[in-house]
Amino acid sequence: MVYTVPESKKSLKQNRFEFSIDGARFELPKFKFLPIEKIEALDASETSGQFSTMLALFGQPDTAIGKALRTLDIEQFTDLFSAWQKDSGVTVGESEASANS
Questions:
Q1: Residue 98, exposed/middle/buried by CB under 10 A (0-12, 13-18, 19+)?
Q2: CA neighbours closer than 13 Å in the CB half-sphere of residue 62
Q3: Which of the two residues, 44 and 12, has the higher pLDDT score?
Q4: Most buried of 52, 61, 66, 88, CB within 10 angstroms?
């Protein structure tokens, strides 16, 4: 029998982090629902710029969310990133998998 990977639950409302910038609403998947490619980018961030990596995690420059994020100052962005981490239940250096082992 072949194992079939179930569909991601990242689109379910309770698995999303919602925020607004200047009245525009955005949402992101919580940490455990991020694509593996985003996690890889985060792991590689030690060799690249921290803010560039964090920005890319949320949205590329040519997307609506990416453009909105780039209007924030550093304090606003780090507060948003911290809120997303808290809502996702993870801290720097700890993934949900390592927290549950």
A1: exposed
A2: 0
A3: 12
A4: 88
Q: Report the alpha-carbon distance of residue 34 to residue 95 in Å, rounded.
A: 11
For 57-69, write each residue's pLDDT tens digit. 788 888 898 888 8
Angle subtended at Cα 18 by Cα 14 and Cα 22, rounded to the nearest 5 degrees: 165
Q: How far apart are CA 58 and CA 66, in angstroms?
A: 7
Tell me, what's the pLDDT at 101? 46
Closest CA to 32 of 13, 55, 52, 9: 9
Pairing between β-strand 24-29 and β-strand 16-21 as defined by DSSP bridges: antiparallel
Task: Give the residues across from 28 on adjacent strands.
Answer: 17
The pTM of the full predicted model, rounded to 2 decimals, is: 0.60
Instruction: Tell the burial category of 65 from Cβ atoms under 10 Å away from its Cβ (0-12, 13-18, 19+).
Output: middle
The tokens for 31 are: 């940490």
